């Protein structure tokens, strides 16, 4: 709809107010899918800050409150948004999930799915750098594994690989009995044998 062009003229705080007024954070998921598809057709593209604000308003509450696998509508909306705005989505959503205490099994699965299916290569690298900024936990190990599987097709920058290896070495004692950690180390040694 032509009315959506207003999104390009809003400051982040105005956009937040508009999202709140339209109740986008709680709108039904089929409406969310339609709204995200409209965003793809928007010209010019949203600025980074506007896309980050929308990512926060549209998805953050929904993702953090997941207690069961995301619906196909939520996945469709995320995939759609990710196809054009993966960097801001990654910056907002992943940071919040990483800071969330507790196991967060559904959030972990969702992050793995985003890595495997949706994120662009540079966003996968951003996600990896975000993960390496926080202490590793069991819930993050499957996400790191998904990143490595995805990175087999891409070249991992040397500084990120160095940081990954250093992090794994430093935190190894805390995961002495973790099968997931052992699998992760094996994957790193297999994929990056010459560099390691």
UniProtKB/TrEMBL annotation:
Highest taxon of the lineage: Eukaryota
Cellular component aspect of the GO annotation:
Fanconi anaemia nuclear complex
Which terms does the UniProt entry file under GO BP?
A: interstrand cross-link repair
- Annotated Fanconi Anaemia group E protein C-terminal domain ranges read 1-195
Per the record, a Pfam family? FA_FANCE
InterPro entries (alphabetical): FANCE, Fanconi_anaemia_gr_E_prot_C
Q: What is this protein called?
A: FANCE protein
Question: What is the species listed in this Swiss-Prot or TrEMBL entry?
Answer: Cisticola juncidis
The organism's taxonomy opens as: Eukaryota, Metazoa, Chordata, Craniata, Vertebrata
């Amino acid at each position: 709809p032509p009315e959506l062009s207003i999104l390009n003229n809003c400051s982040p705080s105005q956009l937040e107010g508009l999202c709140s007024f339209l109740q986008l954070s709680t709108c039904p998921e089929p409406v969310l899918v339609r709204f995200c598809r409209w965003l793809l057709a928007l010209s010019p593209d949203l600025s980074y800050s506007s896309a980050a604000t929308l990512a926060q308003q549209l998805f953050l509450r929904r993702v953090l409150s997941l207690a069961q696998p995301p619906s196909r509508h939520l996945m469709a909306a995320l995939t759609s948004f990710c196809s054009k705005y993966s960097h801001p989505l990654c910056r907002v959503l992943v940071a919040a999930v990483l800071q969330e205490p507790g196991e967060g099994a559904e959030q972990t699965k969702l992050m793995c799915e985003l890595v495997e299916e949706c994120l662009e290569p540079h966003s996968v690298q951003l996600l990896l750098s975000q993960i390496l900024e926080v202490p590793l936990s069991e819930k993050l190990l499957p996400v790191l594994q998904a990143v490595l599987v995805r990175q087999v097709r891409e070249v991992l920058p040397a500084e990120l690989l160095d940081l990954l290896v250093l992090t794994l070495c430093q935190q190894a004692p805390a995961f002495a009995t973790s099968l997931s950690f052992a699998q992760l180390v094996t994957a790193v040694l297999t994929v990056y044998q010459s560099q390691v």
